[in-house]
Specification:
The structure is a single chain. The protein is mostly beta strands. It has a single domain, classed as Nuclear Transport Factor 2, Chain: A (Roll). The chain is built from one helix and six strands. Strands 1, 2, 3, 4, 5 and 6 form a six-stranded mixed beta sheet that branches. A hairpin with a 5-residue loop joins strand 5 and strand 6. The radius of gyration is 14 Å and the shape is globular. The model has no long low-confidence stretch (mean pLDDT 87).
């Protein structure tokens, strides 16, 4: 299950996630991404991220955290994103991440 933003219905299964990614990524150009050091505990993990891109001529920057939960085989069974954004391209600030 993939949920982003958290208040909309989730995309279910691999087909749902692929459908979501195709629709979103096809509109994005000039993508730059940065990732923090992942944190893991038991069957859960979290990673901080920062991304900038151009979408329909608009520069965007999103900064957020992805929360993951894994099944016994190591496959993701729950994926949630929490983020904030500005309508401009902005790199991470110097202290943002140690990686």
């Amino acid at each position: 299950m993939y949920r982003s933003p958290p208040f909309r219905e989730p995309d279910l299964g691999l087909a749902g996630v692929r459908r979501y990614l195709r629709s979103e990524f096809s509109a994005e150009r000039n993508i730059q991404c940065w990732f923090g050091e992942p944190l893991a505990s038991g069957d859960r993990a979290a990673v901080e991220w920062w991304a900038s891109w151009t979408e329909k001529g608009q520069e965007l920057t999103f900064a957020g955290v992805t929360m993951l939960r894994f099944d016994g085989e190591g496959k993701v069974v729950d994926h949630r994103d929490y983020d904030n954004h500005v309508e401009r391209r902005e790199p991470p600030y110097p202290e943002w991440s140690s990686t």
